[in-house]
Amino acid sequence: MEQDEIGTVLGIRGKVVAVAGGGGAKNGMGRATALLFAKLGAEVAVLDLNNEAAEVTRKEISELAEREASAWQVDVTDEAQVDQTIRGIVERYGRIDVWAHVAGGHKGATLIEDIPPAVWRANVELSLTSAFLCTRVALPIMKSQQKGKIVLVGSEAGLSHGYMSGADYASAKGGLISFTRQLAFEAGPFNINVNAVVPGPTHEPDSERDRADGRLPKVPLQRFSRPGDLAQAIVFLASSWADMITGATLIVDGGLLIARTDYETYVSKHKRPVSRGEGTI
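Structure (tokenized):
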């Protein structure tokens, strides 16, 4: 089946999709998401603070998907810039069907007592407030259409703790999960779905980097996520196949969050399968 046909089956073809963080300069998720939407027949607006990265994504879409995209330089923590950009997208395309908020990240990582208040505020603004600023403008547009899909990107730090980050990032991403549920509740009566995707460690395959990361042995699927894995999850939640899913948090981490130990240790501990009546693991 051709990609355009797949896009039609998923209800993606012809949709207007805005991807915040679509430059994907940090880990490639935003770029992979924008490219996949375009390959499936969507009209894509690529938003990013890094204009050069946004232009790279736009050009890749033109070359690989054989369709034109648009690039928008915007600081998603700046209310005025967000308002202006979203209104510009609506002026160009007439509507917004999907908002994929892949923008985020964190600056620095330290213990709570060592976090400067300015760094705390910056990380909360980038990972939580930016989602609020963007969706508060996109939501009325989708309400007027009586339809829309919003997908936010969280982090396992918001469900557990900040393994590689700190309390500022973990708190912001935890707030994003709560924000997802609240937004889903308010948007539901207008036929708008709101969900979150939570990635684990995500990057292009890198065996040396993977070996150096102590978490890899605890991933049941024995590999870290790739940008395309997250892109597919986002596209699914934005598709018609997910029309009855809202307020959900989809974890895309190969099972890392559920693992307490690595498989080798687990097997060595249990010399044989535990049968009924012999206790629990």
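The longest strand covers residues 192-199. Confidence is low (pLDDT under 50) at residues 274-281.
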